Amino acid sequence: MLTLHYDERTGIIRRTAQGLASPAEFDAHLRNLEPMLARSRARHGKALHLIDAGASPVQVKESFDHMAGKIQDTVAQQDCSAIVMQSALARMQAKRLTGHQHFCSTTEEAERWLLDQVSGDSKGAQNAGV
Predict the structure, then answer these.
(1) 73-110, pLDDT tens digit by residue?
(2) Are strands 12-17 and 2-7 parallel, antiparallel or unpaired?
(3) Closest by alpha carbon to 50, among 122, 123, 113?
């Protein structure tokens, strides 16, 4: 199951991924993600994306290949993703995705890392409420 939320306070897109996702489910999810990426980019100059995938296993190869291809067309190289993920195998798989990534142990750590990516920009820090 995939869920999305745009955090108005921080300008961070929060996504939760639990279990396996089919290509069709991911495509529907991506349609909702794209406008949030645009909002975060407008606010910070790059999208800030927190992915809580701590309860997600390694994805089926065919599904992941589909997801990776779609993400390459959607996520810009300057966008930042903080990924909460415990599994070393799932981390290896996720490293194939586009954008600047950082793996974290908790959502709090992930949020701090994301906000640090824009803290040098006074507008980003002001808009993030820090």
Answers:
(1) 788 888 999 999 877 777 777 777 656 789 999 999 99
(2) antiparallel
(3) 113
